[in-house]
Design brief:
Elements: H1 30-72, E1 75-76, E2 84-85, H2 89-96, H3 98-129, H4 136-149, H5 153-162, H6 168-176, H7 191-201, H8 204-215, H9 219-227, H10 232-243, H11 245-260, H12 264-270, H13 285-295, H14 299-327, H15 331-334
């Protein structure tokens, strides 16, 4: 008999038969995954540590007081005794209070008159500064400076002195126009105009935003309009305003909210021991809120006023966002 040759078949490359054990899986690098998770937790911890000052400030100075004021709005709280739950009585007393209605009227008058004048002054000066002139940097800084110091107490005190009886403004209008009102800050019919003038004088911040928007308008549009014979007013109305409408919307929204929150300058210009101006002429909403909360010790009533102000500002903001579809033009929408 010859030698028997045993032949070995190569291992099949197909899938193993059902029930047969397949090749062993490679070991999972559990140590590397664990190290990755540990490193990620360390990064998250570092991020939370860097955020902790802001989080603490938000919880202690914003969220916490907001929740507390919402509770106080339904209580009788005088800052000294424990708050006593009274339901909606603060709100019903608020609507029945004639001085509260006066504060709403004064605030609305200030917002409707002061905000457009401030934005008009800011846009006008921005258009002038957008032209190439010598010393532009100096003029930009000079016009922006009042917005940095305009909200300070010292400026409001100086402003009150300027518009007081027999001061520089009183003398100027008496010499130029023959009008003698005895000082704007002492006359109920004129004191609010001095507050509006102070607000308009602080047009620096919206001016800088307008200037940044004007820099983005392509020169080719103006050149094409000039070739077609469009005048300066037509170019402004048909090119400048539509192109800067997003910036205009931002300034209108921001300045409207700021106008509803006016307090310091109004209280100083007309502050006379809880009256906020002669005959409540500068009794803006926040001024009356301060008087009720800290001078009359009606913190529950003041908290209810604060939440009504929040709702009013939220409503105005919603209306502005709704209206932007009609007059704000975005490049993405145009495409």
């Amino acid at each position: 008999m010859g030698n028997t040759v045993t032949q070995h078949r190569p291992a099949s490359s197909g899938p193993p038969a059902k029930g047969a054990a397949g090749p062993a899986a490679p070991p999972v690098p559990t140590g590397g995954a664990r190290a990755h998770r540990s490193r990620r937790r360390g990064d998250n911890l570092a991020g939370y540590l860097f955020m902790s000052p802001w989080l603490a400030g938000f919880l202690l100075l914003t969220a916490g007081p907001m929740v507390a004021s919402l509770y106080f709005a339904f209580t009788d709280y005088d800052l000294f005794d424990a708050p006593r739950w009274i339901g909606l009585k603060n709100f019903t007393d608020m609507f029945a209070d004639p001085r509260w209605r006066t504060s709403v009227e004064v605030t609305l008058w200030y917002v409707v008159i002061g905000t457009p004048l401030k934005l008009a002054a800011a846009l006008g000066v921005a258009l002038l500064l957008n032209q190439k002139r010598r010393g532009q940097s100096f003029y930009r800084a000079a016009f922006y400076a009042p917005s940095l110091i305009g909200a300070s107490v010292s400026v409001a005190i100086v402003w009150k002195a300027i518009f007081s009886d027999d001061a520089i403004v009183d003398r100027a209008q008496r010499a130029l126009f023959g009008v003698d009102v005895g000082g704007w800050t002492g006359d109920p019919d004129w004191i609010l105009y001095s507050l509006v003038a102070l607000t308009v004088w602080q047009f620096g911040a919206p001016m800088v935003i307008f200037l940044a928007g004007l820099k983005q308008v392509p020169r080719e549009l103006y050149e094409a309009a000039e070739v077609d014979g469009a005048g300066a007013w037509r170019r402004f109305w048909s090119i400048t305003l539509p192109m800067i409408s997003p910036v205009l919307f931002f300034n209108v929204l921001l300045e409207t909210i700021h106008s509803f929150q006016i307090f310091g300058s109004a209280y100083i210009l007309g502050g006379q021991g809880g009256t906020c101006g002669p005959a409540d002429a500068t009794l803006v909403y926040t001024c009356y809120l301060y008087v009720q909360g800290f001078e009359n010790s009606r913190m529950g009533f003041a908290s209810a006023m604060a939440w009504m102000l929040l709702l009013a500002v939220g409503l105005v903001t919603a209306v502005l966002f709704w209206s932007q579809r009609r007059w704000v033009h975005y490049e993405e929408a145009a495409r």
